[in-house]
Structures are given as C-alpha cells and as structure tokens.
Amino acid sequence: MIRVVVDPGVFISALIGPAESPPACVVDAWIDDRIEVLVSPELLAELRRVALRPKFRRWFDEARARELVGRIERHATVCVEPPSAAGATRDPADDYLVALARGEAAAMIVSGDRDLLEADLGDVHVLRPAELLERLADD
Amino acid sequence: MAPGDKINVTLDADTVAQAREQLGEPFVGLDDAAVVERALDAYLLRRLMQSTQAASELTAEGAERVAYEELRASRRERRDAA
C-alpha cells in the first residue's frame, strides 16, 4: 500500500467539494485502504485550526470540524513529529509536511498547494490529488 | 447521526469476518476488536464526508480555492501573532 502525506488543504477540499472531486476520491481511496495516510501532531493541529475557521461554518459546524479531525486521527497512521526540514519550500509553513514525508519515507505528498507542487525537493515527490488517482488507476 | 447520538450495533462472528475480509491483507494480524473499530471508523468517516459534501454547492475548483485561501490565512494570522 502506498504511504502518503496528505496536506490539510486536501482534506478540507474533499469535505466541502463534490463527492467526485479528486480530493474526495483520494480520501475515499484512503478509507478503502488503497493508500496509507501518514499524519503528525502538527498536521492534525493545523487541520483543526483551519477547519475551525469561521468561513467554514457555512458548510459545517464546529462539532463536525472537531469530529472530522478526530476521525482522521483515528483512521490515519499517526507518526511522531519528525525533525524540522527548515528551508525546504518557499513557504516555511509547508516544511513540516516535507519533514514528515522524509522522516517516514512516504512515497509522496498529496497537495494542491503551488508552493509545494513547484518545490524542488529531490527525494520527495509532490502530486496533485488527480495525479495520485491516475497512479492508483495504473497500478 | 449527530455527534453524541447513541447507536446499538449487534456484532457476531459473521459480521466481524465480513469486516476483516473488507479490510484485506494489510490488516490480517488485527484482533477482532481492532477490525471492528477500524471498520466502524471507516464507515463514520465516509458518512461524515458524504453528508457534508452533499450540503455543499461548491465545484471541485471552488472548494480547493476556499480550502487553500483559509489555510494560507490561518498561517498568516499565526505568523502575525508570533
């Protein structure tokens, strides 16, 4: 099973987008155990912070935001916070995702974030959700 | 089902065996309790996703745009507060 790091933006996109969107299909693939999703305490904390932002009350309430993070935590492989990968990307706030992928030898980071997608990370691949789905379809 | 709602689930050996079969090879070593727990987690996570998606009018592109705008805003606010 492919081990991947999914950035918080993908989880949120999956939640508020249509069920057939690529982020939602990535989450489906994970629920169906076609991929293994790795998370860290920092990733879960960021996901919680973003999901609790007032903008999202239009689509889900705070209880549902907390439930989402809790269920993701229960279903994912929770890893110990890895050493920092400072300077890996244009946005320092993305560096923890790179550190997690490196520390756990993940096959890739799945993201819709341009800073990550355009980063030259060498050993860490960054794919858009649709690209991961294409890869799964090819396997 | 809202958070805090109570449900009763009747388990028997067949149900557990079915859940184990659905989980497949990577979870062969799990005991019955872990199998049931994982199957239940998967069900509830999917249900939460689907019910929220059903209430949204956003396109895939719109959802991604809002998600990353809010992610970036959250990071900006944390930086400014630090």
Write the layout of secondary structure elements.
The complex is a heterodimer of chains A (139) and B (82).
Chain A: E1 2-6, H1 8-16, H2 22-31, E2 35-39, H3 41-51, H4 62-75, E3 77-78, H5 95-103, E4 108-110, H6 114-117, E5 126-127, H7 129-138
Parallel strand pairs in A: 1-2, 1-4, 2-3, 4-5
Chain B: H1 13-23, H2 32-54, H3 60-81
Which architecture of chain A per CATH?
3-Layer(aba) Sandwich
Return the string of H and E elements of chain A: EHHEHHEHEHEH
Task: Specify the biggest β-sheet of chain B.
Answer: none
Low-confidence blocks of residues of chain B: none
Instruction: Tell the overall outline of chain A.
Output: globular
Termini gap of chain B: 39 Å
Percent strand of chain A equals 5-15%
Shape of chain B: elongated
On the 0 to 100 scale, the average pLDDT of chain A is 94
Q: Please report the number of helical segments of chain B.
A: 3
- In CATH terms, the superfamily of chain A is 5'-nuclease
CATH class of chain A, please? Alpha Beta
Largest sheet of chain A: 5 strands, parallel
The pLDDT mean of chain B sits at 86
Estimated structural class of chain B = mainly alpha
Task: Kindly describe this structure.
The complex is a heterodimer of chains A (139) and B (82). With 139 residues, chain A is of the alpha/beta class. Chain A is built from 7 helices and 5 strands, in the order E-H-H-E-H-H-E-H-E-H-E-H. Chain A has a 5-stranded parallel beta sheet with strand order 3-2-1-4-5, sandwiched between helices. The longest helix of chain A has 14 residues. The model of chain A has no long low-confidence stretch (mean pLDDT 94). Chain B has 82 residues and is mainly alpha-helical. Helices cover 68% and strands 0% of the residues of chain B. Chain B contains 3 helices and no strands. The longest helix of chain B has 23 residues. Chain B starts with 12 loop residues before the first helix and ends with a helix. The chains are: A alpha/beta (139), B mainly alpha (82). Chains A and B meet through helix 1, helix 2, helix 3 and helix 4 of A and helix 2 and helix 3 of B.
